[in-house]
Amino acid sequence: MKKRIVIKVGTHIIAADDGKLCTSRFEKLVEFLSLVMDKHEVILVSSGAVATGFSKIKLDKKIVSNKQALAAIGQPYLVQYYNEFLQKHGKFGAQILLVSDDFDSRKRTQAARDAVNTLLKNNILPIINENDSTAVEELVFGDNDQLSAYAAHFFDADLLVILSDINGYYDADPKEDKNAKLILHVDKIDESKLCQNINVGSKFSTGGIVTKLKAADFLLKNNRSMFLANGFDLSDVKNFVLEGKHSGGTLFAPKKL
Ligand code: ADP
């Protein structure tokens, strides 16, 4: 059965540390998106505008207004890259810029939903990012994890997939603890886990695991599911989304009664 799936891509997946697009990873990612689009409805939430902007001009990213400027510079390039690669599969995408506050307003949520639904009906990939000129929440902390959870909920998706630099959710930070074990299923998130110190993966990342757990918590509380998987090696997410096989990655899903 056709599902509606929001796929969120972290900056680190598409850009190297110098902000340059990592072409081979990007190509594989877009190929994957295209395969999912053939089976399901796909909404993409993509980070990476700041990194892309930084590959064009080196502004000091410690200053928030510089990050906003970098996002403004990078965003059109990012969408252009998606379209260049999607074209190889006979598809294209469309940019939707949102802020979390848009979901506070029923009118704005409905307007965004109408736009997204129409794009999906025409097999066009909605490419969502935060509108960093008017909101800086995700730019400063979150890297679109929260925005993607809102998109999944308010656009009525069956699943949010977060692609990160990690295989899933572990019982400890795998970068610090070699014995950390991957957890395949999570149906409830302990409050204490939602207020840990963040440990972000790369110099362009801002999310860390806590914003992902918050996204999962929000969705679980709304009876929805999230799948956290590796975006460098797409085999687990391919197995899960395209074949229905859970070989790796963490599924946050409400307990079936
Ligand atoms: P992204 O850029 O994809 O949004 P981040 O790099 O911000 O992702 O966050 C993922 C990072 O969170 C991982 O690389 C890992 O180092 C860290 N992390 C901390 N605790 C955990 C945990 N329990 N399970 C998985 N990752 C964790």
Summarize the structure in words.
This protein is an alpha/beta fold and 257 residues long. It has one domain (4-252): 3-Layer(aba) Sandwich (Carbamate kinase), CATH 3.40.1160. 40% of the residues lie in helices and 18% in strands. It has helices at 11-14, 23-39, 49-54, 64-87, 106-121, 137-140, 145-154, 208-221, 235-243; strands spanning 4-9, 41-46, 93-98, 125-130, 159-164, 169-170, 182-183, 185-186, 225-230, 250-252. The strands form two sheets. It has an eight-stranded mixed beta sheet with strand order 3-4-2-1-5-9-10-8, sandwiched between helices. Helix 5 (106-121) links the parallel strand 3 (93-98) and strand 4. Helix 7 packs parallel to helix 8. The model has no long low-confidence stretch (mean pLDDT 93). Adenosine-5'-diphosphate is lined by residues 10-12, 143, 164-166, 169-170, 172-175, 199-202, 205, 207-209.
